[in-house]
């Protein structure tokens, strides 16, 4: 197929955020081009976990049957400080189940969904520059197989992930003085691949037995294997002084017996994660950053697929407005307060001795951990009016009022 020279909406990056945006924009009747540097299917470093909030977005996209044909789980089994708690997904306004699908498959399916909705796909094309005239982006320059070409656009959605190279060209700045994550994952065969719980080890210990500010996870994939990973939190002031791949290998060995792990850890990879809206310059008059590019990642658990899918839907609602005003306002309205309190709490956990002091007390209480799952798992929706939701929102309002640089500014 020949590459189009111009389009109404150009989406750069076909991860969950970009593919969702392209699908919704095409379903809105617009001309859409969805471009990516990779050729699909492609891998992406991730835990592959789909929380109920991500499931809700996949269901909105019409993918319920597809998701349910994969493994489904009923909640989180939290381990640590001598306790194991089984915490069911709370349900309410969100689906009451989660899943885990390897990103090689999930992202390919989401991209195909966008193409079936009417978007035109361009693969193997790396965005390297933007042509800006009168403050508006008029076109994006791509490189493919030694060739350089431009796609002109009326509107641009930038969904190019953690490092956001195109976002950088447009002035995106990542603030690492706010908490971020260093995380890695691998795949291991397991006799517990059909376990109906995802597992997190909140007492993550390094090779010297020291407690680290982060957690380890084992997410069953239902195909004979599990996704095993570990993530630690860091800030410029308190950088993560741990090599993530050796830590992950150590974690796999620690869990080998209880999770029936067998054979080698395959495909170990690691990445940094901007979190909690800790980026500035996320929009211009006719362009907007979404997903990881806009640091839409939960500071308390590192999940970002749900925010990516949601952001891809929300940005299409405001495409005909001045995005430099409406997009930061939309993100602040939906995520500002919860990101502010969540990153404040995550920042506290990076302080040595805080986790060893608070962890055991938290894990002794089912009630506290059920609340924590809801707050930490992005499972409070705008519609929820119960006490736990009201307390979370109150804390968020208090927190954002104290921020010297609120999320997305
Ligand atoms: C170790 C780890 C574990 C995680 N576990 C989970 C989890 O279990 N659940 C969860 O919800 N989230 C998890 N996350 C976060 C999640 O992976 C991201 O939040 C999510 O992938 C964000 O989606 P996105 O569409 O914004 O970006 P991406 O999925 O990164 O997609 C970006 C796309 O942009 C393309 N691209 C990049 N540069 C260019 C360019 N110059 N030109 C063209 N295309 C370009 C890339 O090829 C890619 O396809 C984890 C992250 C890490 C690092």
Given as residue ranges, the uncertain stretches (5+ residues, pLDDT < 50) are none
Going by helix content, strand content and strand pairing, the class is alpha+beta
Query: Cofactors and ligands present?
Result: flavin-adenine dinucleotide
Largest sheet entry: 8 strands, mixed
Q: What percent of the residues sit in helical stretches (DSSP H or I)? A: 25-40%
Radius of gyration, taken over Cα atoms and rounded to an integer in Å: 21 Å
Name the CATH superfamily classification of the domain at 180-274. D-Amino Acid Oxidase, subunit A, domain 2
CATH class of the domain at 180-274: Alpha Beta
CATH architecture assignment of the domain at 180-274? 2-Layer Sandwich
Name the beta content range.
25-35%
Mean pLDDT: 94
What's the number of extended β-strand segments? 20
Number of helices: 11
Q: What general form does the structure show?
A: globular
- Using the coordinates shown, work out and report the CATH topology of the domain at 180-274: D-Amino Acid Oxidase, Chain A, domain 2
Separation of the first and last Cα atoms: 40 Å
Summarize the structure.
It comes from Knoellia locipacati. This protein is an alpha+beta fold and 409 residues long.
Describe it.
With 409 residues, the chain is an alpha+beta fold. The chain has a domain of 95 residues: D-Amino Acid Oxidase, subunit A, domain 2 (D-Amino Acid Oxidase, Chain A, domain 2, 2-Layer Sandwich), CATH 3.30.9. A hairpin with a 2-residue loop joins strand 5 and strand 6. Helix 1 runs parallel beside helix 4, helix 1 runs parallel beside helix 7 and helix 2 packs across helix 7. The mean pLDDT is 94. It binds flavin-adenine dinucleotide.
């Amino acid at each position: 197929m020949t590459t189009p020279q111009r389009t109404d909406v150009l989406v750069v990056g076909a991860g969950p955020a970009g593919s969702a945006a392209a699908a919704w924009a095409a379903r809105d009747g617009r001309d859409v081009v969805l471009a990516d540097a990779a050729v699909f299917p492609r891998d992406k470093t991730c835990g592959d976990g789909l929380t109920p909030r991500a499931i809700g977005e996949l269901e909105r996209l019409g993918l319920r049957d597809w998701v349910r044909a994969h493994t489904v789980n009923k909640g989180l089994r939290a381990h640590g400080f001598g306790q194991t708690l089984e915490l069911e997904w709370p349900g309410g306004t969100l689906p009451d189940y989660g899943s885990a699908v390897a990103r090689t498959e999930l992202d390919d399916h989401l991209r195909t969904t966008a193409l079936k909705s009417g978007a035109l796909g361009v693969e193997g094309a790396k965005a390297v520059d933007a042509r800006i005239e009168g403050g508006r982006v008029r076109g994006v320059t791509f490189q493919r197989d030694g060739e350089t070409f431009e796609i002109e656009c009326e509107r641009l959605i930038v969904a190019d992930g953690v490092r956001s190279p195109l976002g950088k060209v447009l002035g995106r700045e990542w603030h690492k003085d706010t908490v971020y994550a260093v995380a890695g994952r691998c795949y291991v065969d397991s006799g517990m691949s059909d376990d109906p719980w995802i597992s997190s080890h909140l007492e993550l210990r390094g090779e010297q037995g020291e407690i680290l500010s982060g957690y380890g996870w084992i997410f069953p994939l239902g195909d004979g294997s599990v996704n095993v990973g570990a993530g630690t939190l860091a800030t410029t002031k308190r950088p993560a002084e741990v090599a993530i791949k050796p830590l992950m290998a150590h974690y796999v060995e620690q869990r080998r017996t209880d999770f029936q792990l067998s054979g080698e850890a395959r495909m170990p990879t690691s990445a940094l994660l901007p979190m909690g809206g800790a980026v500035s310059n996320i929009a211009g008059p006719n362009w907007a950053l979404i997903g990881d590019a806009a640091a839409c990642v939960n500071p308390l658990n590192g999940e970002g697929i749900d925010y990516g899918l949601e952001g891809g839907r929300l940005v299409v609602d405001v495409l005909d407005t001045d995005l430099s005003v409406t997009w930061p306002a939309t993100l602040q309205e939906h995520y500002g307060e919860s990101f502010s309190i969540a990153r404040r709490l995550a920042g506290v956990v990076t302080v040595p001795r805080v986790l060893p002091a608070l962890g055991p007390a938290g894990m002794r209480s089912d009630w506290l951990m059920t609340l924590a799952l809801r707050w930490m798992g992005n499972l409070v929706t705008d519609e929820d009016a119960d006490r736990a939701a009201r307390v979370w929102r109150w804390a968020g309002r208090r927190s954002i009022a104290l921020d010297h640089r609120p999320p997305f500014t």
